[in-house]
Write a sequence for this structure.
């Protein structure tokens, strides 16, 4: 969740209202799919057909929020869950690719913000999958609320709590079928943010795919990155930059597609480094403004 207007079109949390996903099969009375951010969701949840990225990797999300699907040969893996009301559309996109949502074994979380984790509780309930997150990310998912050290804390907002979570450490590998997915701690945007990387192949051609967490240095009004209490956040960004600068990255998927560049993903050379440089520039400007 990045709530500063002008960076990726996000705004502060709004009231719950009518569904923004047309054709939703879930009732608004379902507590796990009650719509949030109705106005912003018109952009975030703009319908797109599911798309094959490369090899066993697909996109089953929307115009403004990415959700990835990996077919491991022994079950499916989702990455992120968008807003609560998006869950039925995500599962319908999975079905339209010819897959059974009941085969989803894991749902990986990039960050404990409602625009990426709001749908996790419903998706986990409806598929029986286990949600996987970092330790700090899991705290936020269990609470359905922002952490006390989150730069966006003052925005408030809450989302459905996730109860069944597997915690993984930085560098831990999740193995399922023929796929190995590595967890990468990428703190800064939140201290619980996690990125995920894996290899996908078509015949002898293999590519490194990275679903990177948001790395926008944005905050609620009044937060100062130059405050002493923000030092861990700044060091988190620097650690994330070092990691993503050196990570094999043939294809980049970002939680908000426009952060990675034109299109739903980027397969341009140096995509992850470009992603980092954008964030570095924004953070440098923000610190200079505060000083």
């Amino acid at each position: 969740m990045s709530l500063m207007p002008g960076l990726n079109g996000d705004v502060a949390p709004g009231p719950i209202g009518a569904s923004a996903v047309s054709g939703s099969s879930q009732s608004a009375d379902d507590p796990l799919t009650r719509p949030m951010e109705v106005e912003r969701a018109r952009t975030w949840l703009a319908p797109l057909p599911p798309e094959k990225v490369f090899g066993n990797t697909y996109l089953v999300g929307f115009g403004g929020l990415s959700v990835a699907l990996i077919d491991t040969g022994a079950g499916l893996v989702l990455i992120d869950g968008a807003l609560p009301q998006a869950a039925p559309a995500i599962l319908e996109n999975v079905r339209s690719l010819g897959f059974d949502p009941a085969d989803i074994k894991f749902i990986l979380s990039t960050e404990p913000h409602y625009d990426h984790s709001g749908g996790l509780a419903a998706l986990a309930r409806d598929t029986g999958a286990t949600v996987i997150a970092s330790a700090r990310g899991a705290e936020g998912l269990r609470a359905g609320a922002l952490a006390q050290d989150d730069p966006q804390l003052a925005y408030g907002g809450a989302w459905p709590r996730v109860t069944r979570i597997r915690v993984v450490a930085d560098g831990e590998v999740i193995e399922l079928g023929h796929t190995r997915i590595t967890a990468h701690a990428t703190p800064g945007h939140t201290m619980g943010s996690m990125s995920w990387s894996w290899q996908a192949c078509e015949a002898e051609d293999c590519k490194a795919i990275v679903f990177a967490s948001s790395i926008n240095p944005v905050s609620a009004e009044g937060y100062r990155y130059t405050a002493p209490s923000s030092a861990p956040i700044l060091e988190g960004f620097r650690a994330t930059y070092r990691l993503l600068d050196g990570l094999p990255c043939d294809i980049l998927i970002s939680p908000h597609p426009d952060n990675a560049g034109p299109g739903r993903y980027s397969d341009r050379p140096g995509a992850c480094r470009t992603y980092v440089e954008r964030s570095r520039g924004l953070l440098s400007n923000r610190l200079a403004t505060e000083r």
